[in-house]
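Technical annex B. To support the medicinal chemistry partners, we prepared a structural model of the target in complex with zinc ion, based solely on the information shown next.
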Amino acid sequence: MTAHDQMRAMLDQLMGTGRNGENNKFQVKYSDPKVCKSFLLACCPHEILSSTRMDLGECPQIHDLALRADYENAQKKKDHFYDIDANEHLKNFIADCDRRTEQAKQRLAETQEELSAEVAAKANSVHVLAEEIGKKLAKAEQLGEEGFVEESMKLMGEIDELRKKKNDAEQEYRNSMPASSYQQQKLRVCEVCSAYLGIHDNDRRLADHFGGKLHLGFIKIREKLAELESTMEKRRKERREIQDRERGGSRYRSRSRSRSRGRDRSRERRDRDGRRDRSRDRRDRDRDRERRDRDRRRSRDRRRASRSRSRSRDKRRSKRSRSSSRNRRSRSHRSGSNDRKK
Ligand SMILES: [Zn+2]
Ligand SMILES: [Zn+2]
């Protein structure tokens, strides 16, 4: 790692990768592990269920629409496989909800007056019809609001039919028990959102439940999970293939790395020997230097003595040598040009 890389890594650690102008309020890139991948795929339960009775509070991971846009652009160029992460997240979330639903059912079974199997079946058919009415009513209202009057009217017709069936089912249920027992509200748990529904809830109340943000939010999450699940096997395989391909490269690298590690070890051994050699060398060299220094000192002294004697002679000689060297140079220049002509 170069000093520049080290500095960069340190700054990244301190300030996040947002420091290079990818400005968002969280100072992170969409690929940051702190960013909620389910949110990037628009299916985080924290977002979908916000301001419902089951509001989960703020997601522990970052939600930012600008990052979702970044991700959507990047995903067009390179497959990120975030759907695999989102699938895990939703699967765990829904598993938790289903566990809660089972617990709620268990609680009801313990606290509510137990019905015989026959009566329970009758109660159930009331529930089923009530649920159907509630859903259709919610849908009819939605269609009406959106201006699809004809479709809405058609649904209202179907609802009338269901109401008749439900009245019959209620009558049967009522006849199967004493009036005092019938008065008691029989609760059941919504399989989609684990809310409690009562057997005596009116159509309006049921429509509010089935058309409400909580129940619809859960439908959205469950549908998204089912959609993700349907491709998961293929997607995991695709990711594994890409990882294998990448690891294939790195496997080669790691093999050559271990080979070079072996090389390093032998180099180390050699180095150790070398160091021994070198220290021996150094000792020799030191001895040599001492000898040389002694010699040099001696010769310097000798030269100094001779120089003072021959200084006047040297001056004369240097003048002569300069002129002769000039002649030599011009001669060599000429010969050079001749060489090139040949
Ligand atoms: Zn989230
Ligand atoms: Zn529900």
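Notes passed to the chemistry partners:
The longest helix spans residues 213-341.
The chain has ten helices and two strands.
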